[in-house]
Amino acid sequence: MIYQVNKKKISNGEIIAYRETGKDLKEKEPTLILIHGNQSSSLFYEHLMKDFEDRAYIVAIDMAGFGESTYKNSHIKIKDWADDVALFMDEMKISNGVVVGWSAGGGTALELAANYRDKVNHLVLLASVGVNGFLLPKRTEDLTPIDGEFLYKREDVIKDPAIMIPITRAIENKNTAFLHNIWGNTIFNLYPPNEEDFNAYMKEIIKERCFVDISVALCQFNITHEKKVVEGSGKISDIVCPVTWIHGKKDLVVPFFTGEESIEYFEREKILIPIEDAGHASFMDQPELFNEILENIINKQRRKL
């Protein structure tokens, strides 16, 4: 662990854990808010933070129910996690910043940008959940996905035998060996981290207390004006900041075509940046390329200060 874990109580009673660096740059340089994905925490961002610690004020949070943060209030919508981030920013006296959301954290970042426009200067979506939600396929008894049929009701999602049941059990039983194997075959299938980091990440996963809640929320997430699985909220029209969507071409968790389809829904400044030899964690798979993209975004913000 590189950075100390701090904690801040927000007005709804949750205590949000976070890592920060570049505090002396808070008034001089752009602010980066880093939001992790499902089955993870702020720890996953430490190497990225290290790379940018002299270029920005950086705060990486543990969303409620993850890592060292509390989970006192049941969260049923992705917006609930976004509300936490907004309250946390208020407590930290962070008026706005570049917000990076990875995977499920992309959904949180999307809701933050849609509902708290002034808080997000630039939205960076990293292998984000699609703008019309995570499409969890309904399956036959032999686990074959049924084309065009998806689960979204809580009672159905929790019974999913391919993802939900095995991962829920692994977290409950603190089976890091099982999770290590799953991540090695999906997220870290191209460029696995060193064993020390890998083991540390797996220990973070078993701290999660909201796996079912956020998974159901992702299946019910839709900020478009259309109905794919559930009716869309139309909140995508309220996103007014520039959007940069970064997606690994070899992503096995959220397929690249999700980014291709999602980027078309944004109504203002937007760009999709594919990273060829990267999977679901492109900021780890191709850090130099990813950092170059992020540096360009930070430079644009710097010129506005």
Automatic annotation (TrEMBL):
Annotated protein name in UniProt: AB hydrolase-1 domain-containing protein
AB hydrolase-1 domain sequence ranges: 30-287
Coiled coil: none
Pfam families for the chain: Abhydrolase_1
GO molecular function, a single term: hydrolase activity
The organism of origin for this protein: Peptoniphilus porci
One Gene Ontology cellular component: membrane
InterPro entries cross-referenced by the UniProt entry: AB_hydrolase_1, AB_hydrolase_fold, AB_hydrolase_sf
Keywords: Hydrolase
